[in-house]
Amino acid sequence: MRQKLFIRNLSNKNPTKDLTEDDLKFKIPKITRKKNIVVKLNNQVSFSKNNLPIIAGPNGVESRKLIFKVASFLKKKGIKILRGHAYKPLTFPYRSKKYLETQEEGMNWLDEVKRHLGLLVVTEVTEIKYLDRISMTADILQIGSRNMQNLELLKEIARLNRPIILKRHFGASIRDMLGAAEHILVEGNNKLILCERGVSIPHTHRETSRYALDIQAIPALKEICSYPVISDPSHASFWAPWVEPLALASVAAGCDGLIIEIHPDPKNSAVDPLQPLNFKQFSKLKSKIAKLSKLVNKKII
Ligand code: PEP
Ligand code: MN
Asked: Which of 96, 225, 241, 244 is the most exposed place for a label (fewest CB within 10 A)?
């Protein structure tokens, strides 16, 4: 009897990880509506079907010196969007002595970088209580993979009506990701950018890689929705030597932007030292992307 009642109360008649016609009509109608979405940051920078913005920067805003060094390099390379987190989720609770979230101080350094170099900033919001401070500085608010379904956080961020990067959780189906995205759109914010950053699979071919970039998610998302889809090969592979091939593969697969982690001295990065590209590697990657972007009719920004 209990079992029967339970089944009758399920709103989803055919629970599945794949998308059904019913889903498109009743569960995710906004995110799957076909219209030309452009997420504009300023007159020079927008995420759209003809553009390929590259977001680059260190994992964390470790120090004033580091963030200025990276930002000055990016400015010289013509990159317009700097990434760097002052608030950070870490997989394990034990932090190395040199690593501390720089929080408000880190946000102040990001403000200085913006003032001096005119870059746009993407940074992560880990908790609602930090949102006021972060939104004073960030041009794009990042919702990290771990928070993809933290719906209260999503809604609070969405209500600011500012550009958002929503990262796919490494265990989430496309259906779950679009469900989370729908929560943002329901709040009236359509400045949304979706980000593929790797999924958890039983094997990743070497112990230094953690996730497998789901390249197929890029055309899959673009088939079903019109919001920009970007790729983060750094967090997917966790392994710098694979970042270039995966970035190029993402561009070939039709992504609308990239997030690349860089550091002037990767082995001394406070967290994830195997992951960032150094400046030389990034420069090489950028020139390859520039060539490939012509083939896919996109303008590198
Ligand atoms: C990050 O961008 O630094 C990050 C932690 O990403 P993710 O949420 O994809 O792990
Ligand atoms: Mn990171």
From this structure: 96
Pick from 102, 121, 235 the residue to mutate for probing ligand 1's pocket: most ligand atoms within 8 Å of its CB.
235
Task: Report the nearest-CA residue for atom 10 of ligand 1.
Answer: 145
Distance 232 CA to ligand 2 centre (A): 10
Q: How far apart are CA 180 and CA 178, in angstroms?
A: 5
pLDDT tier, 3 (very low <50, low <70, confident <90, very high otherwise): very low
Q: Which of 140, 135, 146 is nearest to 171 (CA)?
A: 146
Task: Please determine, for residue 115, whether its predicted confidence score (pLDDT) is greater than 60.
Answer: yes
Give the Cα separation of 246 and 258 in Å (integer). Answer: 10
Phi, psi of 44 (to 5 degrees): -95, -30
Q: At which residue do the structure tokens 């950070």 appear?
A: 88
C-alpha distances out from residue 14 to 20, 21, 31, 167, 205, Å: 8, 11, 21, 26, 35
Closest ligand 1 atom, residue 144 Cα: 8
63-81 average pLDDT score:
97
- Site of tokens 């608030």: 87
What percentage of the chain reaches a pLDDT higher than 90?
A: 82
From 124, 168, 263, 272, the mutation candidate for ligand 1 (largest count of ligand atoms within 8 A of CB) is: 124
- The predicted-structure confidence for 222-258, as pLDDT tens digits, reads as follows 999 999 999 999 999 999 999 999 999 999 999 999 9
Answer yes or no: is pLDDT of 195 > 50: yes
Tell me which H or E stretch contains 61: none
